[in-house]
Every structure is written in C-alpha cells, then in structure tokens.
Design goal:
This protein has about 250 residues and is of the alpha/beta class. It contains six helices and eleven strands. It has a six-stranded mixed beta sheet with strand order 4-5-6-7-9-8, with helices on one face. A five-stranded mixed beta sheet has the order 3-2-1-10-11, with no helix packed on it.
Length: about 250
C-alpha cells in the first residue's frame, strides 16, 4: 500500500496568481505529475488546499486530484472553507489502508491560525482506540493539519496544536498508534515522540507551494527548498517513508 501525502497548496481562483516565491497552481501541477509516476494507491491532502477559500480553487484542486487515478481524501486546514470542500468531496474520519488504519483528526479552529482537537474529539479518539485493541488490532496512522509537537521554530510552534499534551496523554495507553502525519509547517520534519512504553513517529511534509525556513525564530521562507510530497509505503506492520521534491 502506497500513500502519498500532500499539503498546503494555498491555491487561489486565479491559476496565474503568485505566492511569495512562485505560482501555487503550477507547483501543484508539477507535484501531482511526479506523484502519478510513483503509482500511489491513495492520496491524502492534509489541509490548506486554498488560500482565498474560493469555490473555484477547490474545484481546480479536485479535478486535478481526480486525474491521479487513485482514491483521494482531504480535510480542512486553518486557511480552508470546510463547507466548500465537502460539497465536492466529503471528509472521512477513518480510512482502510489494508494492513493499517488511518484516523483523520480535525484540528481546525474557526478564525484561528493555530489548532486544537478539543475534549469531545479526544474522547471519541480514546473510545475508538480502546475498541480497536480487541476488535481491530492493526497498526494505526493518525493524520491532522496542525503539528502535534514543537518543531523548533518559535513562530510556527505558537501556531501548532494547542492541546498537544492532551493528545499524547490520550495516545499513551495505545501502542498500536505508530505514526502521525501533519501539514501546516511547510517543511519536511521527522521526529520520534516518547509515548507510553514506546514512541510515535511524527512526520511533517513540504508544502506544494512555498516552504518555511526550519528552526527560525520569526517567520521566514526557505528560498532554496522546492515543493514536495511525502511517500508512505505500508507493508504488513512495516512503515517506510520519505520526502520527494520537484522542480516547479
């Protein structure tokens, strides 16, 4: 099973619109062309599809994703308009990845750049994980827009998951959770988070648009980094993942 994750496309209704460093629509087209050559089984889009929250930007994205030739799924980031997205493609909270399960969490907070899962969603997650111990013991991937641990950039960490400590406490009794995929940070990131008797891998992904400079105190873009995607290969209980970048 090969999953490709993309994130933070930041499209506008005008396909010729510029970002700080490039043209988001053209860059997304280049990323998707490269993704097609990798023959994915599933595409996961982890938020901030649009910058202007226009219906046209979501239609453009959906038509491009349809052309990949595999099932695709998305959820909203802090820049998105969820209702427009769901009119085109409903959100899914759980996906069957064969030997694995993928649980998608909603970290978006209306009107805020930072994220939060909230007590109700964390309680539902705990119930799902408890049931899975006996009923479905497959390893689990989590996916959300906001990053659930510090990445070493002060300005970005202030906009991460506000209730991350509550998330990790929720996950602590459940070693079947093996990894978390997130967007939002516009950069490649990999780190193990101690959790219970083991650890959970947290993976960030480059934006398909502009990249943020790692380990920066204040906001900064990385002019040298190219757009990209994360590839996740699942084989039995084994997970292998890496980042691929493209020339826009």
């Amino acid at each position: 099973m090969r999953l490709i994750q993309i994130s933070d496309c930041h499209l506008r209704a005008d396909p010729d619109a510029r970002s700080r460093l490039g043209f988001p629509w053209r860059q997304l087209e280049a990323v998707m062309a490269h993704a097609s050559r990798l023959r994915p089984d599933i595409l996961l889009v982890t938020g901030d599809v649009s910058q202007d929250e226009s219906p046209a930007s979501y239609r453009m994205a959906a038509e491009l994703f349809d052309g990949l030739g595999c099932p695709w799924f998305w959820f909203a980031g802090n820049h998105d308009h969820p209702e427009f997205m769901q009119e085109l493609r409903p959100f899914h909270h759980e996906l069957d990845l064969g030997d694995w399960r993928l649980l998608c969490l909603d970290s978006r907070v209306t009107g805020q750049a930072g994220g939060e899962l909230g007590e109700e969603q964390l309680s539902e997650l705990a119930q799902s994980l408890a049931l899975s111990v006996e009923l479905d013991p497959r390893p689990i991937l989590l996916a959300m827009h906001h990053h659930p641990m510090p990445i070493g950039s002060d300005w970005m960490d202030a906009l991460g998951l506000a209730d991350r400590d509550a998330l990790w406490e929720t996950l602590r009794p459940y070693p079947q959770v093996r990894a978390v995929l997130c967007g939002h940070i516009h950069q490649a990131f990999t780190q193990l988070m101690p959790c219970g008797q083991g650890s959970v891998a947290v993976y960030g992904v480059p934006s398909t648009s502009d990249q943020f400079a790692p380990l920066s105190h204040d906001f900064a873009v990385d002019e040298a980094a190219r757009p990209g995607m994360r590839v996740v290969d699942l084989d039995g209980e084994h997970l292998e993942t890496w980042v691929e970048r493209v020339d826009p």
